[in-house]
Specification:
mainly beta, Elongation Factor Tu (Ef-tu), domain 3, Jelly Rolls, 3 domains, 8-stranded antiparallel beta sheet
Length: 476
């Protein structure tokens, strides 16, 4: 019996009936230009249109209530905001990327008739085979596209030495490039100088923090599987209901321009409240900035963010009690930086593959130069509120960079050993460094495709990357 899998789910009670139809395939539109007095027409361009798939379905129901329940389940299953994988068991090894099309009121008839026809639209009109992956053996590689149509590749480049640019080019001189090559009159420059990284394997070098905004430092931290977590909450004191452990660490030098980021988690059940914070302290223990992710809602699952230049009494909020709507069960990054008098905050979740999403960036220009004290210490705090159950919070990693200003003849490195550059040529295309979108794409670059059959690919600069690619071969 034929089955249908949509968005990774198969309904065992759904009957896939005969009569599946597809719009003429490949759906090609020829744009023609007619000229008066001349026979025929000129072919201006050829476009491949979207694909429509109509699939008759049916199901057996015990009674009208069961039929309505199955219809409701069907409509909930098929309604997606974007195209998702669609497979039919009688087309083995082929995947379409589809979403439901047409008038959803037709689903009302399904409960009565126990049958109907579903129409899918595929913006990408090709069927795709299983994912293929290749590892480059050198900076020049011949790659076979096993499909019969152009494929959208994803290139992964593991950096083996610091680079000021990265480029990949095909045999048709199409290329994607970021950064800037170094000419003979210029030199490479380390714009971001890592001066502190703590992978939370121990508490060595940390001392107890002494202050919190609207809270009381208490209890103690501990290390659990390379994660900084609360060992003991301590007790609340006075009118400040937030309490929990805070620890701080001094930097090797005081910094004027800096970037600091923590990889954290704050898993928040609806009944739990708690926050994770990074404080920026000067040499006299005064707070010069703070960034926070917290769930302070009673009976509601919602993490929200705050970012501030300065202290609680005179500071300026870049991000004030804001939430992205997708920050609950947060595993991701909190970042705050200052370059000159420009402050930038960045909060995002990080997927298992390292890709950043649910991102929010805020900027603040300190035109009056009120928040210019040098950074000397980083303080981390995990706190709870009153008697509420705490969120499951942890800090996985801390990095602090000194930001250096290049001169006119210095070209900054865009990536260093161990970083990962991704040229994602799928959909509208995106470049990422360590999962974060990178915007400095060189003019003339394009997200090119793998042509059917052989593609000659070249990576530059030489001897700087371990390169691999993956793609799904498309079939007309």
């Amino acid at each position: 019996m034929t089955t249908m899998t949509f968005n990774g789910v198969t309904k065992p009670w759904l009957i896939i009936r005969d009569g599946r139809q597809k719009s003429p395939f490949p759906p090609i539109n020829n744009n023609l230009l007619s000229v008066q007095g001349m026979p025929g027409a000129y072919l201006e361009s050829t476009e491949v249109d979207v694909l429509y798939i109509t699939q008759p379905i049916g199901f057996i129901a015990e009674d009208d209530d069961d039929a309505q329940a199955k219809t409701d389940e069907l409509s909930g299953w098929l309604l997606t905001s974007e195209p998702v994988p669609l497979q039919f068991s009688d087309e083995p090894g082929r995947t379409y990327y589809a979403k439901i099309d047409g008038d959803m009121s037709d689903f009302n008839k399904f409960a009565r008739l126990r049958r109907g026809t579903i129409t899918f639209v595929c913006p990408n009109p090709f069927a795709h085979g299983p994912e293929k992956s290749y590892t480059f053996s050198s900076d020049e590689e011949a790659i076979e596209n096993e499909g019969t149509a152009e494929a959208e590749p994803i290139f992964e480049m593991e950096v083996t030495q610091s680079v000021t640019f990265a480029m990949i080019q095909n045999h048709l001189n199409e290329y994607m490039m970021i950064g800037q090559p170094v000419d003979v009159e210029s030199i490479e420059f380390q714009e971001k100088e890592l001066i502190l990284q703590d992978t939370m394997d121990s508490l060595t070098g940390w001392t107890e923090g002494t202050q919190l905004d609207n809270g009381t430092p208490s209890g103690s931290m501990t290390v659990d599987n390379s994660r900084l977590v609360v060992g003991d909450w301590g007790t609340e004191a006075g009118t400040a209901k937030w309490y929990g452990p805070a620890i701080k660490k001094s930097l090797s030098e005081q910094l004027q321009d800096f970037r600091a980021e923590m990889r954290i988690e704050n898993i928040d059940d609806a009944s739990e409240v708690g926050k994770v914070e990074m404080y920026f302290l000067d040499v006299n223990d005064q707070i010069i900035g703070r960034i926070t992710l917290k769930d302070a809602w009673q009976g509601y699952q919602r993490n929200r963010g705050e970012a501030r230049a300065g202290n609680a009494s005179n500071g300026h909020y870049l991000l004030d009690e804001s939430y992205a709507g997708a920050w609950h069960d947060f595993i991701g990054i909190l970042r705050l930086e200052r370059r000159g008098n420009e402050w930038t905050s960045y909060i995002c979740k990080v997927r298992e593959n390292g890709e950043h999403h649910a991102r929010e960036t805020r900027h603040f220009s300190d035109d009056e130069y009120l928040y210019m004290d040098q950074l000397a210490q980083i303080q981390i705090a995990i706190t709870k509120f009153g008697d509420y159950e705490p969120t499951q919070a942890a800090v996985r990693d801390l990095k602090v960079w000194k930001l250096n200003d290049p001169s006119d003849f210095e070209i900054p490195y865009i990536a260093n050993q161990g970083d990962r550059i991704t040229f994602d040529h799928t959909n509208n295309g995106e470049v990422r460094i360590n999962g974060e979108p990178f915007e400095n794409i060189i003019m003339g670059s394009s997200f090119f495709s793998l042509k059917p059959k052989t593609n000659q690919l070249v990576v530059q600069p030489n001897n700087s990357f371990n390169t691999s690619l993956k793609y799904r071969p498309p079939y007309k």
